[in-house]
């Protein structure tokens, strides 16, 4: 077990979480998460993706708030800044994103229960690891932390990434008209504009740079965990999605890369 904070429970959960991220990093190359274009009826019960996303992301908000509010440093400036960042992030991912998804009528059971179950576990652990560290165990969150280059650089990277993620998510959402959604047709189009000029999966790229920024900002292994498990999930999915587009659309822009402009 990793010795990091000296709190046995925290260090144990962190060790298990990091080992799990390593497991996902291998497994995700073999089985793409069964939702969206990779939904599979063979993997059993599935939910409406809006409900699936909502349930999967909810523990990130609830568990975070629970541990945040128990911590002795909950009223201090730096923890409150992190609380604000967290609530904005999960206000988008946990509430706005699922509520605004365009899910074709009649095709609403595509979000595998397996994804929801694993997601609930991961977002709960993620909420606990961050909140307990921020308001109880983190030794470096005095007001001077706001002037530390790690905080400042991470904050800027996080917010540039967040805005770009919102933009890419919005381009994808608008590829399907409301009429198509009402007709039950599951239309996929080639996304264009923004970072899609260079990569097939800009929202995955900026999700990863965003969590890297957040990890820098908090300077914590909780941050390393969420970056690692997101990368374990999203890197293989980015390649699978890129291959899917190239197969589905013969006119798919050949210069577009899967995840990193000009490189990968
Ligand atoms: P997708 O791009 O697969 O889907 C997002 C939405 O856009 C879905 O409603 C999807 O419909 C629709 N869509 C996607 N492509 C097209 C297209 N070509 N034409 C029409 N509609 C399209 O993204 P994910 O659902 O995988 O991820 C959503 C967000 O969550 C991203 O910002 C991602 O970074 C983040 N995320 C973070 C993870 C983490 O571990 N931190 C893990 C997974 C996602 P449909 O569902 O019908 O395919």
What's the domain count? 1
Structural class: mainly alpha
Count the DSSP helices. Answer: 8
Radius of gyration: 19 Å
Average pLDDT taken over every residue: 96
Strand content: under 5%
Low-confidence stretches: none
Q: If strands are numbered along the chain, what order do they take across the biggest sheet? A: 1-2
Bound molecules: NADPH dihydro-nicotinamide-adenine-dinucleotide phosphate
N-end to C-end Cα span: 35 Å
Helix % is 55-70%
Number of strands: 2
Shape: globular
- The ordered string of helix (H) and strand (E) elements is HEHHEHHHHH
Largest sheet: 2 strands, antiparallel
List keywords for this structure.
mainly alpha; SRD5A/TECR; 264 residues; two-stranded antiparallel sheet; binds NADPH dihydro-nicotinamide-adenine-dinucleotide phosphate; 3-oxo-5-alpha-steroid_4-DH; 3-oxo-5_a-steroid_4-DH_C; 3-oxo-5-alpha-steroid 4-dehydrogenase; transmembrane helix
């Amino acid at each position: 077990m990793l010795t990091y904070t000296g709190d046995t429970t925290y260090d144990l959960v962190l060790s298990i979480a990091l080992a799990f991220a390593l497991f996902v990093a291998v497994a995700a190359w073999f089985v793409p998460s069964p939702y969206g274009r990779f939904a599979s009826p063979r993997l059993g019960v599935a939910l409406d993706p809006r409900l699936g996303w909502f349930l999967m992301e909810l523990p990130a908000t609830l568990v975070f708030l629970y541990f945040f509010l128990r911590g002795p440093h909950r009223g201090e400036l730096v923890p409150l800044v992190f609380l604000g960042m967290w609530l904005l992030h999960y206000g988008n991912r946990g509430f706005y994103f699922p509520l605004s998804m365009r899910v074709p009528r009649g095709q609403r059971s595509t979000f595998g229960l397996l994804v929801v179950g694993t997601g609930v576990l991961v977002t709960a652990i993620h909420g606990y690891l961050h909140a307990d560290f921020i308001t109880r165990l983190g030794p470096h969150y005095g007001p001077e932390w706001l002037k530390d280059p790690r905080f400042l650089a991470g904050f800027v990277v996080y917010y540039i990434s967040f805005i770009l993620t919102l933009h890419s998510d919005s381009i994808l959402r608008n590829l399907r008209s409301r009429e198509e959604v009402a007709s039950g047709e599951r239309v996929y189009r080639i996304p264009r504009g923004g970072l899609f000029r260079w990569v097939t999966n800009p929202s995955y790229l900026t999700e990863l740079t965003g969590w890297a920024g957040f990890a820098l900002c908090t300077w914590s292994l909780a941050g390393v965990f969420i970056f690692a498990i997101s990368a374990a999930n999203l890197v293989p999915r980015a390649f699978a999605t890129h291959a899917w587009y190239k197969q589905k659309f013969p006119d798919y822009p050949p210069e577009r890369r899967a995840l990193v402009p000009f490189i990968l």
